[in-house]
Amino acid sequence: MGTSKPHPHNQTADFNYDEALAAFSAPQSSVDGVAVGKVIGDNAPHEVGQQEQWQYDKEHFKLVSPLNRAKFRILIVGTGLAGGAAAAALGELGYDVKVFTYHDSPRRAHSIAAQGGVNSSRSKKLDNDSTYNHTKDTVKGGDYRCRENDCWRLAMESGKVIDHMNAIGAPFSREYGGTLATRSFGGVQVSRTYYTRGQTGQQLQLATTSALYRQIGAGNVEIFTHSDVQDIIVEDGVCKGIVTRNIITGELSTHTGHATVLATGGYGNVYHMSTLAKNSNASAIMRAYEQGAYMASPSFVQFHPTGLPVNSDWQSKTILMSESLRNDGRIWTPAQKDDQRDPMTIPEDERDYFLERRYPAFGNLVPRDIASRANAQQINGGYGVGPKKNSVYLDLTHAIEKLGEDTIRERYSNLIQMYEEAIGDDAYKTPMRIAPTCHYTMGGLWTDFHEMTSIPGLFCAGESSWMYHGANRLGANSLLSSSVEGWFTLPFTVPNYLAPLLGQEAPDAESQAAKDALKRTEDRIEKILNIRGPNPHGAEYYHRQLGEILYRCCGVARSVEDMQQGIDEIRKVRADFWENVFVPGGKDEMNQQLENAIRVADYLDLGELMCVDALDRDESCGAHYREDHLDEDGEAERNDDEWCFVSAWEPGDKPETFIRHSEPLYFDRIPLMTRNYK
User: Fold this and answer.
1) Average pLDDT over residues 14-20
2) What is the Cα–Cα distance from 55 to 43, expressed in whole angstroms?
3) Domain that holds residue 418
4) Looking at beta carbons, which pairs linking 493-496 to residues 24 or more positions away fall under 8 Å?
5) What is the pLDDT of residues 499-538, one digit of tens each?
6) Is 329 a domain residue?
7) Looking at the structure, do residues 409 and 496 belong to the same domain, yes or no?
8) Which residues cross the membrane (predicted)?
9) Which of 37, 96, 136, 249 would you label with 660, given CA atoms 20 to 30 Å apart?
């Protein structure tokens, strides 16, 4: 893995992408039921370097005349930053846009919960930041399991995101002189994170929703609230629309369009307890997966290092404390095991600031995967604190002494108030207690460089897509990637797809493909409602079992034995679910038990695929930390010779079988090297 000679996945002057794809051979799988599929490409213009590919594409994309745009109907599912921005932008361009949300209002999308900030390399500070540094940090942070060209686009468009969101009303925090304020997040050594105190997602979401409402009011966008996607309409291999269910009335509807965008968020709730809102789910992407859209790297899951510790076995979710706290907070545990003294009475020389000790160059601002592993290792090693000994300390007292309590209140007051309401402690006077918790999913539907899935006409954006983040997302790149996709990518790539379709009528909602999708939905609902097994349980019972299995077998650290056991246990739980799950009520009414049962059924299939993907990928990389692939320092050890590719999964012909397609990853200006944050 050294750089003494060119690695086959590092581009040289005579590199030819098509020849590299033809020569690539993916490894066979050690997992029963997994077949190796085909080698796929990213659909980027490789006649130019990766840094230039997005600009080249924009200059060569096909265009749709303003007079013809209203002839094209675009369906957008989700109203968070990616979906809401795409709907607003495409609506303003003049397309016939229909946007769907299962909420009562688009502003309730989960983007509103993001706290810490949004990255951009437009910084005016003299800290040597640049588009190159932003790209390099993102590729390195993702442990070289993301596309370099995607990361160039992310960094190149980042300045536009800040300027645009500022222009449409996002109240970014400012320095005393009026310039936009920035701070640092994990995995970087510059200050490129723009923020609105601890409510950045909220303010970006509200600004985006205002822009969306403007287009709704102008008649350019039609919104369907309380609409939950149940299936994808695919005709002759092309996406033609969706089937939705009104969660208030139970009514099923088919909607057709020339293009469909899924921006439905992440699937972290597969773990039962995560930082996601309880209604965040994976059903839309699982319906797409069942219809032929590849699922990329589903085992790449981020565990946030600064979640609040679980206080009860019957807790329904976990709570996030923003990564921004690591700017001023120091993370530590007592140096002695089982030391349960009041933290304020423990002397400095009896504390272990373990991140600062192990990673002196980055200290408390190492990437999330590294911080979470270190936290978990301290807890599992007997150094955990709190009533359940399941947390470590995040201490703001040093910053308060240095900067003053007023400054810390100005930066973090809403977060500290949230902490006090949840835990009962005053973080101004005693250290916070934090623990790793499921937070973000880097995996998702595979998409090419133009954000289109393996089903033509079906695009995917935001956390429901796999793009940009590789095996580990850098903090504050999530709000950025969703904004880049919604405002500055899909408004180019979707019209490029639509332009050759000019003259075609909108797909027919009464077509056989639409009827088939509607019938699949009806059959799925009837099947769940009619289960009357001998040992009935609600869907929540199975969801909790699944979450416990995944935390144990596909969590922060993973072993071959645990992953295989996880697959076996999930299959047993799934069999029990389909025999015994009990759903009261009917289909033609508001029925949250039915909604939950459908989602848990999808989680069981997805959880199995996650464990299969984790067991199949015979290396450690980023958040995929396998105990059988570690270097001499106990850090994740990649296998670039065999596994420098994206796994893109498709269901096999029989139950419990899978096809793993491969997209090789090649690096141009950001060559492969071992991650080092020490």
Assistant:
1) 97
2) 14
3) 304-438
4) 493/61, 493/450, 493/451, 493/452, 493/459, 494/74, 494/86, 494/90, 494/259, 494/261, 494/459, 495/61, 495/62, 495/63, 495/64, 495/69, 495/93, 495/95, 496/61, 496/62, 496/450
5) 999 998 889 999 999 999 999 999 999 999 999 999 999 9
6) yes
7) no
8) none
9) 136
Residue spans of alpha helices (H) in 168-226 = 200-217
Tell me which residue of 64, 69, 88, 74 sits closest to 507, measured CA to CA.
74
* 3-state SS class at 563: helix
Burial 434-471 (b: 16+ CB within 10 A, else e): bbbbbbbbbbbbbbbbbbbbbbebbbbbbbbbbbbbbb
Tell me which of 107, 368, 599, 660 is the catalytic residue: 368
Domain annotation covers residue 636: yes
Q: What is the pLDDT of residues 171-201, one digit of tens each?
A: 999 999 999 999 999 999 999 999 998 899 9
Q: Are residues 203 and 166 in contact, defined by beta-carbon separation less than 8 angstroms?
A: no
* Rounded CA Rg of the chain: 24
Tokens standing for 193? 């994170």
- Among 448, 469, 500, the domain-final residue is 500
Q: Do 133 and 243 fall within a single domain? A: yes
**pLDDT digit string, tens, across residues 445-464:** 999 999 999 999 999 999 99
The whole-angstrom distance between residue 657's C-alpha and the CA centroid of its chain comes to 25
Find the CATH number of the domain harbouring 157: 3.50.50.60
**pLDDT given for residue 6 in this prediction:** 82
Q: What count of other Cβ atoms lies within 10 Å of the Cβ of residue 219?
A: 8
- Identify the helix (H) or strand (E) that includes residue 243: strand 238-246
Q: Tokens in use for 63?
A: 């265009």
Could you read off the pLDDT of 134-143 as tens digits, one per residue?
Answer: 999 999 999 9
Residue 548, token pair as written in the block:
């416990």
Q: Are residues 235 and 356 in the same domain?
A: no
pLDDT digits (tens, 9 = 90+) for 285-298: 999 999 999 999 99
Find the mean pLDDT for residues 466-492. 98
Comparing CA positions, the residue from 619, 614, 266 lying closest to residue 443 is: 266
**Are 527 and 126 a contacting pair, CB within 8 Å?**
no
- 368 is an active site residue: yes
Same domain, 98 and 137: yes
Q: How many CB atoms lie within 10 A of CB 180?
A: 17
Burial class (CB in 10 A: 0-12, 13-18, 19+), 213: middle
Tell me whether strands 295-296 and 645-651 are parallel, antiparallel or unpaired: antiparallel
CA pseudo-torsion sign 377, 380, 385, 388: positive
CA pair distance 38, 506, nearest whole angstrom: 32
How much of the chain, in percent, has pLDDT values that exceed 70? Answer: 99
What is the pLDDT, as a whole number, of residue 3? Answer: 45
CB within 8 A of 527, min separation 6: which ones? none
DSSP annotation of 620 reads -
Q: pLDDT confidence of 5, banded at 50, 70, 90?
A: low
